[in-house]
Amino acid sequence: MAHVPNEPDAPETIELTEDELRAIAGYAADCASPVLTLFERDLSSDTRPRDAVDAARVFAAGGPRTGALRQSAWAAFKAAREASLSPAAADAARAASHAAAAAYLHPRASAHQVKHILGAAAHAARAEELASAAGTEGRAIGAEALARARDHAPAAVRTVLGRLPVAPPGGGPVGALVRALDAALRT
């Protein structure tokens, strides 16, 4: 059962094992990987998002949690900011940033942590929406991406989400995608 925000007896921290962190980082990398081509199509010489996904995969496979891993997340985030002329490319880079940052999920019982777990999947879905035709078709493509993310989620993702409050309100279209995926994974 999900924690309810502001519940008087809700814990301040949650249990979070290294194996769970690795599974979450691997899941996030798997979600971000398919949209890297959207970034590379527009910015082929910029490897920062791909480097972040690769670093997340190394951690997921048993590698250490290093400063270089954290820096790859920040570098992909900066790449997203620099890709402002292509919204799909920017969200693809944000997905990669979230993949590398997933290794640094905090064991806090905070709804904000849900965005760290599902951010790569939500930004990847948004990148696919933006890269497709506008309107209904784009939303359908985003819904398909979320369904893939739901179906691909390892048990650790569902388990850790169950220890956290539900995804918070706000966050625009990506926030809506996070909430939709969070709800789907909790059922």
Can you give keywords for this protein?
disordered N terminus; globular; 187 residues; 9 helices; mainly alpha; 0% strand
Structure notes:
By secondary structure, the chain is an all-alpha fold. The protein contains nine helices and no strands. Helix 1 runs antiparallel to helix 3 and helix 4 (67-82) packs antiparallel against helix 5. The longest helix has 20 residues, at 112-131. It is globular and about 45 Å long. Mean pLDDT is 92; it is low at 1-6.
Q: β content, as a range?
A: under 5%
Choose one word for the global shape.
globular
Order of helices and strands: HHHHHHHHH
Q: What is the average of the pLDDT values?
A: 92
| Low-pLDDT runs | 1-6
Radius of gyration: 16 Å
User: Major sheet, described briefly?
Assistant: none
Helix share bin: 55-70%
Counting H and I runs of at least 4 residues, what is the number of helices? 9
- In terms of quaternary structure, what is this? single chain
How many beta strands in the DSSP annotation? Answer: 0
Backbone structural class? mainly alpha
End-to-end CA span: 10 Å
